[in-house]
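Below is our example:

___
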Amino acid sequence: MDKIDRKILWNLQDNCRLSISDLGNLVGLSTSATHRRIGILEQEGLIEKYTASLNGEKLGYSMIFFVEVSLENQSDKTLASFEKAALERPEVLECYLTTGSADYLVKVAAKDTKSYEQIYKRIIASLPHVSRIESSLVMKTVKAWSGYSLEK
């Protein structure tokens, strides 16, 4: 991966709706060369997918919670069972296996506290092998994730 590939990735990360022609102009390549490089970046797995970033608050999700989840044990079977169930729940926005006092960090969005109570009781607490749950409410997003740092 060279400097031009990094410029392509940086620009796509910022706005994946750029036309290939516009992207080529930004990075100093022809449309066909830009298209070819994007194809290679996709094949190599550097570009996984193209998405739209939605405004959760405008969709009615005014509350974000980070939930630390501890399991009964850390056997491969227990972890796999929890992960499979978490993947099946659309309320689980993100889920990470972590080090530290909890086994997983789960991100969920809720419309209000009553909505979160239902997610807590019906979803998180019912995931297999859960032994402890600790929730933290996000009071303010100081910096939301907007992409990886790439040298231009």
About this structure: The two ends are 12 Å apart (CA to CA).
